[in-house]
Amino acid sequence: MSDIPILSRERMALLGQLVRYGVTGALASVVNIGIYHALVQLAGMHPNLAWTFGFVGAAATGYVIHGKWSFRGHGSRDRQTVRILRFAIVSLISFALNSLWVWLLVQHMDLPIWAPYPLVLCVTPLLVFWLNRQWVFE
Length: 138
Hints:
elongated, mainly alpha
């Protein structure tokens, strides 16, 4: 048996962050999708407006949990104002991309309101994880 670790300490830390980020992202996505779906289905709200309300709930959830858990031990926590501003910018990028998915698939292509979920849950989070790790929680 070899005593060489399969993953370096740095890669293990990255993997841990990715797993915690995924769990937190799943929770934030449930908040976002829950609000979106309820407002479209129950209140008859325009899909992109409903997505906006869902996004606000998810962003607040994500900021708190990502900062305290997902990226714990990564980067400094001494520039809170800068981190909040950067998180807001990354969140707006995420919002714009997910709004594009909603518009394209639901509004433009007339697909069911759940059609954007795969892109919202798989494509956007990878970009946002990278931006959060490299820029927000540096």
